[in-house]
């Protein structure tokens, strides 16, 4: 243990460190930690001097750095070390938080090797802990020399062998042993840990664990990006197909075939729509968008883990995942896929606890037309789920009581034209009055023109219903006595509801 002032003024560290924000008191330092994600600061040991990697240091001008300083207060962090390139980005807010927390903010040259700096600080803290530090130095060099495209297991084995302590990866956070989180896409994907060691060896082990975990995270990120390149091309082709007008679909179907998508097989489409439970602060909107992107990737990985061939696509702000196979999956396909989706939702739900997920599952359809029909059914099932207040579970189209032929028409360009043209005189009246009149018309037509039944459903007097209906037909350019006109109106009301 040493005071921060002793460390910064020591011959070994004086050329490497300088004060950016000097604390009022001289805090004690017990350990050194190297972190790549600001959130890791709440997991470092008490009274640490925390070194930020270049990426983490670059966030010094953001609110995330302010939050990290607040988290560090609970761990009595003695100092945080930034790259000197980021010193100018420090805000008065950050300086104030550091001052109140008793935490120093130090700068170091961008040319300084953080691993060597960590070793130098560790040597000053431990006195003559040469053996432990030399082992840590050897492990860090083994990590640095590992090829970028090498196996994660090999990196872990090399680092553990160089330090003399085997390293292991676990999905859940280990208890009672030194550990470091492995981050992939800013999410914890696992933990790197080892058996507890004594004295100075454990200090060196913590440095190695964090350096190895960061390297493993980078390797997993790179591997995942390489695997996703062809997947993204297929996603783009399917996304365009789901929203394209009929005249451009043949070219998109051909493109999907050339990309290896089994578009001529059988398909069950699933639609996922995300809804925030609370209004987001503007500064959180970009982060929320990235969270949804990560959730989409996690959902695809989760459903692929349940078996079968799955492809992803986008439809506006919704995520569409499609179960594809060559053979007819039978009448239970929609319910089977709904069960798989429930399993996948259970796995990824914790990533966005402040978000409702509406999930609709279409029935099985063959070929490109079957895919489009299944996607339309999945959208109808989402609407039904929203209407009934159902969230975070899959609603199968087979269970919502809608007919395939009607849903296909509702999703067509013809239906959209009908909504826009036939109901135009009502939509021009303004949102509140328009909704009131269209709702009345919809119920009135569904009740076969019965004023009494319409009044009961809308909680209106029969005369009030008659007054509204007369208003509606005076505005609309249709023949009230023509059954074809009434049918078109009824279909337009239903298509508008689905839209």
Describe this structure in words.
The protein is of the alpha/beta class. Helices cover about 50% and strands about 15% of the residues. The protein has 19 helices and 16 strands. The strands form four sheets. Strands 11, 12, 13, 14, 15 and 16 form a six-stranded mixed β-sheet that branches. The chain has a five-stranded mixed β-sheet with strand order 2-7-6-5-4. The protein has a three-stranded antiparallel β-sheet with strand order 8-10-9. Strand 12 and strand 13 (about 320-325) form a beta hairpin.
Q: What are its keywords?
A:
single chain; 499 residues; alpha/beta; Udp-n-acetylmuramoylalanyl-d-glutamate--2,6- Diaminopimelate Ligase, Chain: A, domain 1; Alpha-Beta Plaits; Arc Repressor Mutant, subunit A; 3 domains; 6-stranded mixed beta sheet; 5-stranded mixed beta sheet; 19 helices
